[in-house]
Amino acid sequence: MTALHEATAPAAVPAERRPSASGARRAPERGPVAGVRRWVRGGGLSTLAFAIPLLIVFGIFSWSPIVQAMVMSFQKTNLITSQFVGFDNFAHVLADPLLGRAVLNTLYFAVLALVLGFPLPILLAVLMSEVRRGRGLYSALAYLPVVIPPVVAVLLWKFFFSASETGVFNTVLGWVGIPAQPWIQSAASAMPSLVLEATWAAAGGSIIIYLAALLGVPGELYDAAEVDGATIWRKIWHVTLPQLRGVIFIMLILQIIATAQIFLEPFLFTGGGPNNATVTVLLLIYRYAFQNSLGGDYGEATALSLMLAIVLAGLSFLYFKATERWSS
Amino acid sequence: MLAVTATFVALAGCTAGGGDGKLELRVATFPPGADAAAYEAFAAQEAQFEKLHPDIDVIGVEYEWTGPTFAAQLAGGSLPDVFTVPFTDAKTLLANGQLADVTEQMNALGYTDEFNPIILDAVTGDDGHVYGFPRQAYAMGLHYNRALFEQAGLDPDSPPTTWDEVRADAKAIAEATGKAGYAEMSTSNTGGWQLTAATTARGGRIQEGEGGDYTSTIDNDGTRAALQFLHDLRWEDDSMGDDFLLDWGSINQEFAAGNIGMYTSGSDVYTALVRDFGLDPDVYGLTVMPMDGADAGVLGGGDIAVVSPTVDDATKDAATTWIDWYYMQKLLNQDAAVQDAKTLADSGQAVGTPVLPVLDQATYEKSREWIADYINVPLDQMQGFFDGIFDQTPVGEPKGHTQEVYALLDPIVQAVLTDQNADIDALLAQADVDAQALLDGN
Predict the structure, then answer these.
(1) What does DSSP assign to residue B373?
(2) Given B92, B96, B411, which is nearest A276 (Cβ)?
(3) A274 in reach of chain B (CB within 8 A)
(4) Domain range enclosing B278
(5) Longest Cα–Cα distance in chain A
(6) What fold is seen in the domain A88-327?
(7) pLDDT above 60: residue A12
(8) Average model confidence (pLDDT) across chain B
């Protein structure tokens, strides 16, 4: 505490600790009752009233399932009867030959999504921020895919991805002389196809966030750069991107976490096929829990979920540490 | 606030049930997506039953057997009191205590001994008790689109009888119409299911053994021939269209839309094709799967009406009363059979879909005679199936880890259909090892 703070401290004494207005001198209240009273007068009750619904909702719908899942990962259970099995579930999951394939597929998806899906929204946002008229229209158009329910979007794209020569994308390719592609019907092109759709579906949200951040960049910086004779690319490189780095950092870690949990696209487009080419970690978790029609192996599913959560938490921590200086 | 409270009270009244003293019985009806006429027919049947049993209030619940939701529904208490499960899963479910024991009720109804013993075995536990009523069985058949046959210059009244003919017809259809001449399911465990059927039809078996001691025999000549057949149609003839990730629902959808010339599936799928997928009955054709080899047989399956293990005794009695009335009496009793057929026919529902007998053959044939006037499925378009099915050897589905083994086979079917250079021998050898590990409990 600084000298200044010490000098002003008496003014900060709560009213109930000061001598009463009537002038009668009372000993300062002490003990737990006084503490509660102080807490109440300080607005503690209203704080609690606001917090309780949140705590209840989070407790029931988030924390309780997380704790139950952690318990379940050490059990063999069909949801009716349960039996403690120690680390058996973890051992079984780690011995599954499909796990390595699922991890590699997930990494492949994450890398492709990073290469294709990460720079695109930044680029589009920068271009849109340069537009003087109709920015609202462009924003709405960019955001439109986010508004479409994901399942509907996937079904639409399934139609676009038709491998026949009359399929939508293949027709377009045909106009420029490119032969029909198998898209999701081939192990080689299935994953890139999924990334294409996932990028389209998610880019709108990222563009809006980048656009908001871009509009917050002080105009004087650009003016100064312009006075110095900077080209548009030098302005982007030396002004825009450094100003966006905080947002870029957050978006990157969010994207890594999201891509590591990719499920919807492989589940709806390919069911993990062809020949396990699009089985991801989360799809494998789903299969453990639900593919066996006789009640599933919820223990193994939660064990793999837990391992994924730990890996992602560790990855996030390392990433934050590694980029601490850069992002601050 | 008062209105909200009143609503809660009213809802509580509903769920507590039977303000009028009736016992509420929640019974499975149809999968989501069934047409309105199906619900009309069900409402009529519900009224008929409640007239006979005024103390029971039947509540229809949309239901579709899906493995993913079953255990969660059971644990969450949202499973109907009466529902159906496939033969393949009955043994494990009853071993897990997930089905109610109905021995006493079935004995009281007096027809335990009339079931085909092989079929009754599927619902009998190690304790000798019975845990369900086998209600319908099917054999795998070859479904085909008569309109596409005609467009390809083929005679729809002479469907193929050998696999070579299937291949030739598929090629003709693909070349003449641009549609898939032949299609195969390959996802959600259906690839394994159909590969097993194709294997059986070529004299192979994917599993041997009884009573929990099973050996994987996936690496056999029948399965190899079945995969080679798919490979040739796909890569030499290009007669299988462009979608190789189909499952039961999507292949039915494509077939009903006129995009598939032929595919194999359960003989009873006609009802779903018309009711749930909007198939034009005029284009439908059904014949038996071609058999090839000395041990060739037709894969069969079916489903069982069962009672939730969580119900009390009174509800269990009501549940078996419903099962007897809704599912069984039409197989046993002329009046019930006629009433059921008439109700369904009046609502435009399929009557006479080809199934296999769960009781003895004579009773089955008699029941077909009872409802002859109401049969509205195009029997003449299914003649190939009726002519051949009783000459084929029925083979049950593999019993050890059935769905998991099917799941192992899905990627193999997909590999053959999407990779021209897929090494069938290597795929089979690996699947055999993986399946044996499953069967050994590793």
Answers:
(1) G
(2) B411
(3) yes
(4) 139-299+390-439
(5) 97
(6) MetI-like fold (1.10.3720)
(7) no
(8) 88
Question: Residue B316: what pLDDT?
Answer: 94
Do B148 and B230 belong together in one domain? yes
Say if B407 is an interface residue toward chain A (CB within 8 Å): yes
Give yes or no: residues B196 and B48 share one domain: no
Distance between alpha carbon B373 and the CA centroid of its chain, in Å?
A: 26
> What integer pLDDT is reported at residue A327 of this predicted model?
57
Asked if A182 and B418 come within 8 Å (Cβ–Cβ), the reply is yes
CA–CA min distance A20, chain B (Å): 44
Among candidates A186, A187, A291 on the partner chain, residue whose Cβ is nearest the Cβ of B67: A291
Q: Which of A275, A289, A296 sits opposite B414 (nearest CB)?
A: A275
Q: B191 and B290: one domain?
A: yes
According to DSSP, the residues that pair with B213 across neighbouring strands are B210
Neighbouring C-beta atoms of residue B281, cutoff 10 Å = 13
Whether pLDDT at B8 is above 90: no
3-state secondary structure of B9: helix
For residues B15-36, average pLDDT: 74
Say if residues A168 and A159 touch (Cβ distance below 8 Å). yes
CATH assignment at residue B432: 3.40.190.10
**A19 HSE (CA, 13 A, CB side):** 4
The answer to whether B259 contacts chain A (CB < 8 Å) is no
Residues of B in contact with A287 (CB under 8 A): 407
> Is residue A21 over pLDDT 50?
no
Calculate the average pLDDT of chain A.
Answer: 84
Instruction: Answer for the pair B136, B358: CB distance below 8 angstroms, yes or no.
Output: yes
Averaged pLDDT for residues B59-68: 79
Quick check: A275 and B418 CB within 8 A?
A: yes
Residues A268-308 have pLDDT tens digits of 999 998 999 999 999 999 988 887 655 568 899 999 999 99
Do residues B105 and B150 share a domain? no
What per-residue confidence (pLDDT) applies to A27?
Answer: 59
Q: What DSSP designation does B351 have?
A: -
Express each pLDDT in B65-98 by its tens digit: 776 677 777 777 788 999 998 887 787 787 777 8
Identify the CA nearest to B234 among candidates B413, B428, B411.
Answer: B413
pTM over 0.90? The answer is: no
Q: Do the interacting molecules here have an ipTM over 0.85?
A: no
- What is the pLDDT at residue B27? 94
Gap between the Cα atoms of A307 and A281, Å rounded: 10
Q: Quick check: B411 and A275 CB within 8 A?
A: yes
Of B202, B184, B241, nearest in space to B412 by CA = B184
Closest residue of chain A to B403, computed from CA coordinates: A292
- A296–chain B Cβ distance below 8 A for any pair: yes
At B103, give phi and psi (nearest 5°): -55, -50
Q: How is residue B245 written in tokens? A: 């990730």
pLDDT at B4 over 60: no
- Domain coordinates of chain A in residue numbers? 1-42, 88-327
Kindly list the residues from chain A whose CB atom is less than 8 angstroms away from the CB atom of residue B75. Answer: 78-80
Please state the rounded mean pLDDT for residues A136-142. Answer: 86
In B7-86, the DSSP E strands lie at: 23-28, 56-61, 82-86
Same-domain check for residues B121 and B253: no
A179: contact with B, CB 8 A cutoff: no
Nearest CA in chain B to A287: B68
Point out the least confidently predicted range of B2-6, B121-125, B330-334, B344-348: B2-6
Tell me if A163 and B411 make a contact (CB, 8 A cut-off): no
